[in-house]
Specification:
The chain has 234 residues and is an alpha+beta fold. It has helices at residues 15-26, 41-44, 68-80, 90-113, 116-129, 134-160, 164-179, 192-205, 208-215, 218-230, and strands at residues 6-10, 32-35, 56-59, 64-66. The chain has a four-stranded mixed sheet. α4 (90-113) crosses α6 (134-160) and α5 packs across α6 (134-160).
């Protein structure tokens, strides 16, 4: 693999972490993954100031970058000459990156936690995938889900007026329409915007019950599988 370019402080189920992972894997950049305890996030990333969330990217020279989209841009700039962020149509690029980081981001929590059933299923899955202690993981799986369901998911579902699966189909319709006849948003090759949307979807894929609500969007899944072929997770 060669010399690691940096360390990614991450939660395995964090949608924003998956965005950065999609970029790192697409560029085949060797890096260290530091999976932290979800109950000790602030302490684990305290070196990044008062950010207190994942992901945090620490470059091999000590530079620290927080927030997934700035991390993606910085990695692309330093290790790929900015080629993935570069665009002939900056207005289109900026519009759709913002679309990914608002519309797609806000649709991710409701599909995972939008009903009591899906919330319970997701939190059990989170407890399995994250580095909790066995006991705290079990407590989280049973106590965490009503909080996520009650506070975040319901609020976001109400805001759009659509059920979570319906909202995802609506967003994928917009996305596929924008891509048009091309294989990717970036044309024949993925752009950072492709990798961002792909990352959000991958964070849902690890929760099979939730992902089933997306899987029946035929054209969306064709694009998703094309992305898988070029950005395999390591």
């Amino acid at each position: 693999m060669g010399h690691e370019i940096g360390s990614l402080y991450m939660l395995n189920t964090c949608p924003f972490t998956w965005k950065v992972r999609a970029l790192l894997n697409h560029l085949n950049l060797p890096h260290e993954k530091i999976q932290i305890n979800p109950l000790k996030i602030k302490k684990s990333v305290s070196f990044a100031g008062d950010w207190g969330k994942t992901p945090v990217w620490k470059m091999s020279d000590g530079e620290i970058v927080v927030d997934s989209t700035p991390i993606m841009k910085r990695i692309d700039e330093v290790h790929n000459n900015g080629n993935l962020w570069r665009s002939d149509n900056q207005e289109r690029r900026d519009k759709w990156m913002e679309w990914a980081d608002t519309k797609v981001k806000d649709a991710t929590i409701p599909i995972l936690y939008g009903s009591i059933g899906s919330a319970l299923s997701t939190t059990r899955s989170v407890a399995k995938h994250e580095r909790f202690g066995l006991f705290t993981g079990r407590i989280y799986a049973w106590l965490g889900f009503p909080i996520m369901w009650g506070i975040i998911a319901k609020k976001r579902t109400k805001k759009t007026g659509m059920q979570p699966g319906e909202l995802w189909h609506h967003l994928l319709n917009e996305w596929i329409e924008e891509i048009g006849e091309n294989a990717f948003f970036g044309g024949n090759e993925p752009h950072i915007v492709d990798l961002a949307v792909f990352g959000y979807m991958q964070s849902i894929e690890m929760h099979p019950k939730a992902f089933r609500l997306i899987e029946n969007h035929e054209n969306g899944m064709l694009w998703f599988n094309r992305m898988k072929n070029v950005a395999a997770i390591q």
